[in-house]
Each structure stands twice: as structure tokens, then as C-alpha cells.
Design a protein that fits this description.
alpha+beta
Length: about 130
């Protein structure tokens, strides 16, 4: 079967392989969109109009440091458990201390975390819920 014939049969009657291909393309597009959004927010840290705002962020645990150390979290990488935030860092759930939560408006938009590493373990210095949460 020629490649052109495969596409013709997909157009006239969706086969199982075509549905898998369509689902895969939709997933790939979703991942690319999420990556572009994260890169856009991350690039705003080091330059742009939000640079001074990022550099001024401070929690009860100290300055969040430069925005380059912040990480954008997708919705599946953070949650609320027993009234407290937890975030997924390096494949482990880490509790967010109440004093690490930033309460000012999130000008960047997405949920972000600023981890530090103590004895090889992640500890949250700052956490900012997304503007839509």
C-alpha cells in the first residue's frame, strides 16, 4: 500500500491507526503549547517588564532569589492536601511551608515554586499559586 493510499483511506473512513495518530498529534500539540507557555513565563524572569517584580519577591523564608531559579508548575505538579500546598519536585511530593506561600497578586500568571536543595533534598523557599487559582 502506498503512503498516499493510507491517507486517502484515513480521509474517507477513519481507521484505528488514524485515530491513534490524531490523538498523538493532539497530545504533542498540547505539550508544545504548555512548554511554550512555561518558557514564556521563565524568560520573563531574567529580562522584560517583570524582572524587577520577580527580583522583589520574598516569602517568610527569605528572598525568592532571581527569577531564573523559579520553576513554572503545571496543574498536575501541585495540589492542596489537608489545607496546605504540596509540589512535585524531582518525582517526590514536597510540602510547602505556610511561610513560603506568597500572597501578593501573581503578575506572571502560572503557578511557580522556588526550591532550594539542602543535603540533596528539595525544600520550598517560595511558592506562588497561579493567577487563576
Amino acid at each position: 500500500m502506498k503512503m498516499g493510499a493510507l491517507f486517502l483511506s484515513c480521509a474517507s473512513r477513519p481507521c484505528f491507526g488514524c485515530r491513534i495518530l490524531s490523538a498523538g498529534l493532539a497530545l504533542l500539540c498540547s505539550l508544545l503549547l504548555a512548554a511554550c507557555s512555561a518558557l514564556s513565563a521563565a524568560s520573563a524572569h531574567s529580562s522584560g517588564p517583570l524582572k524587577d517584580w520577580f527580583n522583589s519577591l520574598e516569602s517568610g523564608r527569605g528572598p525568592c532569589c532571581s527569577g531564573a531559579e523559579g520553576r513554572v508548575l503545571s496543574n498536575v505538579d501541585w495540589q492542596v492536601r489537608d489545607g496546605h500546598y504540596v509540589v512535585l519536585l524531582n518525582d517526590q511530593w514536597v510540602s510547602v511551608p505556610d511561610e513560603a506561600v506568597l500572597h501578593q497578586p501573581n503578575l506572571a500568571g502560572p503557578t511557580m515554586v522556588w526550591p532550594i536543595w539542602i543535603s540533596g533534598r528539595p525544600v520550598v523557599r517560595c511558592f506562588m499559586p497561579g493567577s487563576g487559582t
